[in-house]
Design brief:
The protein has about 500 residues and is an alpha+beta fold. Helix content is about 50%, strand content about 10%. The strands form four sheets. Strands 1-2-7-4-3 form a five-stranded mixed β-sheet, with helices on both faces. A two-stranded antiparallel ribbon has the order 5-6. Strand 5 (about 380) and strand 6 (about 385) form a beta hairpin. Helix 12 crosses helix 14, helix 14 (about 290-320) crosses helix 15 (about 320-335) and helix 14 (about 290-320) crosses helix 16 (about 350-365). The longest helix is centred in the middle third of the chain and has 32 residues, at about 290-320. The radius of gyration is 23 Å and the shape is globular.
Length: about 500
């Protein structure tokens, strides 16, 4: 960390004059209706009070002092943080249009270059999101055809877990490979063996980049992008991006060789058909190679990481809370028996459904959300927020809102059950975000989570390795762009 401090001190001298010209709108406007926030210092803003490894934790702490709406300054960049269910819902749902833009974050701009869905802006985002949702639905998202694909992949995964014969193993890598295969089947029309070198390399690239995004090196780059030449994190992310996109490009070219617009087989085929149609209308179509590569990148990473991480959490939590695991298995035995689980079983299995929802709430995979931006000047709950302001709607603050959950900081499946044991929906359940930028693959994720989880507990009971007690299991997350459990081993005992 010494080199980081030296760089920051250097900035005080190098950027002193620049600071006078780059002071944000908030400094120019002395209006008392601006959100409150901690005192800033020149050049650094509020960087000196941030936990570089867990900025989200600092924001939660500040919300207790300044309220559910407060402002921060990272270098010269002003941002507004929103916390708690009522505040986040008001912004993302009730005033969705005003908070629908994506913040211009340097590392995300470098990575996406304005293309794709997750980090795109304006009309490019709108068209790519609409197409992606429609294409995924056309290829079976939420339908029986994809359910069969998920069940088949789950069967392969279970057979692989069974080969460990109850001995300790880390389930993460194989789990990520299985979930990745489901996404790949949509996008590319193929699957990989779990030991396939190409798949393992893709997973490595994705995992490393998701971790790097949350490191101090990248945080500093996002605040002071001109220092990029000194920072290894951003360079490594872009190197990994190049390799990942080269794979997508090669697969895209392979699809072109066999492409038949009358026999569409994959997401890529659907994109090519739409590209041909749009190019007849205009030379400025959004359906071009750069957007195709970026959309495939976005769907693969988002679909694989969040879902596999949630399943990874379920295995850890079932070991930590064996009484919950036992109740789920009893419900599976009663409602499913030994046959293959189906999606419709979810509606007659309230306890299992509640456990899955509680894992998502407790695990809090994306506590900080991906930052939004305002599309216009807006008065929000009495505060003025200018157009283009970074907005951090903290999903973690919603999923652990003390006014919405009986035991917000504990794993408690009863959050989703009424007094008679029936499943109940909770408005403050927002793991997929909300509003116009909410996750496009929510329905697919729900299907994968239910079918994998019930299949796991139908066939196995998960125990800590010999010599490890349930009390010794660590629930401390590792933060990157998403939050994953610390690596652990499990024993999958056949039932």
């Amino acid at each position: 960390m010494v080199w980081i401090l030296l760089i920051l001190y250097l900035l005080v001298f190098i950027l002193a004059v620049l600071f006078l010209f780059k002071m944000g709108t908030f400094q120019k406007n002395s209006s008392p209706t601006l959100p409150p926030g901690p005192r800033t210092i020149p050049i650094l803003g509020n960087l000196h009070i941030m936990d570089f490894k867990r900025p989200y934790k600092t924001m939660i702490k500040l919300s207790k002092e300044y309220g559910p709406i407060f402002r921060l300054q990272m270098g010269c960049q002003e941002m507004v943080v929103l916390t708690g269910y009522e505040t986040v819902k008001e912004a993302l749902v009730n005033q969705a249009k005003a908070f629908a833009e994506r913040a211009v974050v340097p590392i995300f701009e470098d990575y996406a270059k304005g293309f794709g869905v997750i980090f795109a802006h304006g009309e490019n985002w709108r068209q790519m999101r609409q197409f992606s949702i429609a294409a995924l639905q056309d290829y079976g998202m939420g339908k029986r055809i994809v359910e069969d694909k998920i069940s088949e992949e789950c069967s392969v995964l279970i057979k692989t877990y069974a080969t460990y014969e109850g001995k300790p193993f880390d389930p993460a890598r194989i789990l990520k490979a299985a979930v990745a295969n489901i996404i790949v089947s949509f996008l590319l029309g193929k699957r990989f063996e779990y030991e396939d070198a190409t798949l393992l390399r893709l997973l490595e690239l994705v995992e490393e980049n998701l971790h790097l995004v949350g490191t101090p090196s990248v945080l500093i780059y996002n605040v002071f992008p001109k220092l990029g030449f000194l920072l290894d994190g951003p360079k490594k992310i872009m190197k990994n991006r190049k390799e990942f996109h080269e794979f997508i490009q090669a697969t895209f070219l392979e699809n072109l060789k066999e492409f038949d617009e009358n026999n569409q087989r994959t997401f890529i085929d659907a994109f090519l058909v739409r590209q041909k149609k749009e190019n007849k209308k205009s030379t400025n179509s959004y359906f071009h190679k750069d957007n195709l590569i970026s959309v495939v990148d976005n769907l693969f990473i988002a679909g694989m990481d969040t879902t596999s991480n949630t399943l990874y959490w379920t295995l850890l939590l079932m070991m930590k809370y064996p009484e919950v695991q036992r109740k789920v298995q009893e419900e599976i035995a009663k409602e499913i028996g030994i046959r293959q689980p189906r999606t419709e079983d979810r509606f007659k299995m309230p306890y299992t459904n509640a456990v899955i929802h509680e894992v998502q709430r407790f695990a809090d995979i994306a506590p900080s959300n991906v930052p939004h931006a305002t599309t216009m000047d807006v008065t929000f709950k009495g505060f003025f927020i200018p157009k283009g302001t970074y907005i951090f709607p903290l999903l973690g603050s919603v999923l652990h809102d003390e006014s919405q959950w009986e035991k917000p900081h504990e794993f408690y499946p009863e959050h989703f059950l009424d007094s008679e044991g029936n499943f109940v929906k909770r408005d403050a359940f927002m793991p997929f975000s909300a509003g116009r930028r909410m996750c496009a693959g929510e329905n697919l994720a729900k299907m994968v989570l239910f079918l994998f989880f019930t299949s796991f507990l139908q066939r196995f009971t998960f125990h800590p390795p010999p010599g490890t007690s349930k009390e010794g299991l660590d629930l401390t997350p590792i933060f990157g762009l998403t939050a994953s459990p610390m690596p652990f081993k499990t024993c999958a005992i056949l039932r």
